[in-house]
Amino acid sequence: MKRMKKPLKAAAFFAAIVLAAGMPLSLGNSIYSAEPLTAYAAEESYQEGSNGTCYYKKYSDHIEISSFKSTDVDSLTVPDSIDGLPVTVIGIYAGQLCKMKTLTLPDTLKEIGPYAFGYCPNLTTLNIPDSIEQISFRAFEECSSLETINFPDHLVKTGSFTFENTPWLNAQRKKDPLVIVNGAVIDGRTCSGDVVIPSGVKYVASGAFSRNEKITSCVVPSGVSEITDDMFFYCSNLKSVELKGCTSLGIMTFAYCNKLTDIKLSGKLTKIDGYAFADITATATITFRGSQSKWNAVEKPSNDAFLQRANMVFDENYQEPDDEVIGDINKDGACNKKDAELLQSWLLVKPNTELADWKAGDLNKDDKLDASDLSRLKKIILTK
Fold first, then answer.
1. Distance CA 58, CA 91 (A)
2. Residue 222, exposed/middle/buried by CB under 10 A (0-12, 13-18, 19+)?
3. From the CB of residue 67, how many other CB atoms can be counted at a distance below 10 Å?
4. 189-238: pLDDT as tens digits
5. CATH 3.10.310.30, domain 1-175, yes or no
6. Which of 100, 137, 226, 352 meets the CB 3.0–4.6 Å disulfide criterion with 76?
């Protein structure tokens, strides 16, 4: 029998995640952050149902998979529609501990929820459909055979420890400790020293640097507006951070960073979460690239001890230079195969082919575009 229900409210969902994960609701004077599913945040009634493969929640315009009926299968195929509605979300824990060797995800899917396919020991390859927008925290953690992940050719937001302890992540870290895919930083927990995130990056995953004791400073480019939850949580030797384009600081962003003494904040900043600077004992100089009145207008906690101790500097005349992304000739903020296809079309003199920034494609710096630039561009893309 189908029953009408309401989705969990944000606070209730947060508590459910924390308790299910075995985490305390408080950490000293701070709280544990968990990322809820975001694509369908508004409350809406749904019906529970099931078919031969799974249990699901049926909303007015989409389906969310709640769980799969059997985890002891060699192959798992997620349907693209149920009852005429597209399957767009795979919910929390839905496929955890599944023994499948192959996983087929539909082109309708937008979001993969927390812990969705964690601890699936036989999964070797993950093909992420082009429709995906977000893969939440720990979605594929401890998939001990997962060596290959094929991402779509666009930015996909990930969460804390999305691919934790997988062969794929270990291999990426060996190539570069700052793991970046299509303009998104997925992981930086093995970085060390002074880290400068490339200008083409538009998103940094929550918890990307958390508990990294070797990082000492970080520059985040102007394309990253959202400083996500827990990004630098417990980075005990982090001394300075420059956030060029941030508009918001998430929960626990700098919690327990007790050597943090130099922060540069964008004048675009509008909100600081009440726990962004939780439990920091250091005294910092905060340079705000805007006026004092604009700083006063920022939504922030009124009783935050770290902010109250800080030495404030207001730099109203600062001009942020434009970030140039090498190879980004279509000016979409990333260098990918779309740029190579565009340059190739231009070199073949195809009608109506326009380059938004031809200089970004002049990779051999000879003030012209030719086949050698195209060859270099392809090499850059292939090594990402």
1. 12
2. middle
3. 16
4. 999 999 999 888 999 999 999 999 999 999 999 999 999 999 999 999 99
5. no
6. 100
